[in-house]
Amino acid sequence: MEYLADTVTxxxxxxxxxxxxxxxxxxxxxxxxxxxxxxxSTISLxxxxxxxxxxxxxxxxxxxxxxNKGLRKLFGYKFNGSNR
Length: 84
Description:
Elements: E1 2-5, H1 7-15, H2 22-32, E2 37-40, H3 42-53, H4 61-67, H5 71-74
Parallel strand pairs: 1-2
């Protein structure tokens, strides 16, 4: 199944702070097992950048992407309609 991750879930998952809902946790586990595919919208990436620049979250966009070098494995994302 395909999912679109919301910004809060992405931030909490990669910064390892706060909690996410039970269903979101189950979906992320399914993604890690290869059962699902999840996308992160461009607006979520921009929101992470904005929130980190305003120091409202403890993880930067760079760290978010770096923490999961396999972003395509866990969270697939598309730019201009194609995976890179």
